[in-house]
Amino acid sequence: MTPDDRLTAQFAFLNEADRLKSVLRATTLVDGSRPENSGEHSWHLALYALTLADQAEAGVDINRVIRMLLLHDLVEIDVGDVPIHSANGTAHAAPETQAAEQRAADRIFGLLPPDLARDFRALWDEFEAAETPDARFAKSLDRVQPVMANLQSGGGTWVTYDVTFDQLQNRVGTKIERGAPRLWAWVRERVRPYFG
User: Fold this and answer.
1) Which among 42, 51, 71, 52 is positioned nearest to 142, based on CA atoms?
2) pLDDT band at 88, cuts 50/70/90?
3) 59 in the Ramachandran plot: left (φ > 0), alpha (ψ -120 to 50) or beta?
4) pLDDT in tens, 6-28
5) Sequence spans of domains, the chain
6) What is the pTM of this model?
7) How buried is residue 34: exposed, middle or buried, by Cβ count under 10 Å (0-12/13-18/19+)?
8) Which helix (H) or strand (E) covers residue 181, if one does?
9) Residue span of the signal peptide, if any (predicted)?
């Protein structure tokens, strides 16, 4: 690949990534004024990682976490946002959704030069698997940010999808607790009164 070809591929990827700003999420901004877009969500999660790094277990590499969080939702360019509380929580983990996300990852990361494509795709796959300490912490932040937005906006998607505390604990709390146990303990204490 020539230097010009490399830059052409890099900018093709960056131009495609800009489309993430047009993907609207179910979660609103904290003031409830409008839905956030997936680009805003990814930026906010990177800021969450910087700010809440002290909540990660020892050995978590926050720079890797930030990289995962900046990449994790790029597949929504093709697939859209699949809210975790929609369709009783099954749509998010449905095999067809997972397959569509894999195809999207192939296409989007395939725009990059091969070395970057491998690196970015490996980070995305690691995030999706949520087995490493870095990925577990990244996943916990991805789950806690909408919780905090819902708390600030009067319930947000919890109202939209008629979510119970048990559903929140099972679909969200367990993921947060797995990567950031102290964080979930703090958040749970603030969430519990909302559900009565």
Assistant:
1) 42
2) very low
3) left
4) 999 999 999 999 999 999 999 99
5) 3-195
6) 0.94
7) exposed
8) helix 181-191
9) none
